[in-house]
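If you are new to this repository, start here. Below is one unmodified record pulled from the training split, so you can see the exact layout before writing a loader.
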Amino acid sequence: MKFFSDIRLLLLSLWLGAAVFFIAVAQSAFAVVPQRELAGAVVGRTLSILNFAGLGIAVVLLLTSFVISRVPINKFLIWAERSLLVVLAAACGVGQFVIGWMLASVRGQLGRPIDEVAADDPLRIQFNNLHEWSVWVLFAGMVAAFLVFFIITNRRSGAAAKKVDPAAPYDFSKEFKI
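And here is the target side for that same chain:
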């Protein structure tokens, strides 16, 4: 089961790393690409890949959590893990299929680059609000994934800790072998 848990942690770590890297890509794209519209296209495409990957990984981890549940473990932690994986999947799904679609719709209604639209224009304000929601939804997914990572890791270390002899909790001779 350790190998299975390691694969699950690897998938989750890959997505978390990609999400953190996405933040750097988004900032770099707007700093380097001369046209903000092109930078937005790069960021939108990268976010789309991140959302689809997060959705897929969340579903795979959610399904595999039912295989893990056959092992005697804390029921609260397994249901907390599943709930957080649902949050991750929902965040990626909402970010991609709801907010992403709405952002594309607003961009289509503008008919010109977003930087050419006045800051007090209702469509510009709506675009900025949707962008803010997109950031918060991605952040919620990242926090949920981070918590799942620690739940899975704690479960593994908790199982190893139960193998320690409870009669000798202060026996440090095994810890400091030379």
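Two things worth knowing about this chain: Helices lie at 2-32, 36-68, 75-110, 122-161. Residues 2-159 form one domain.
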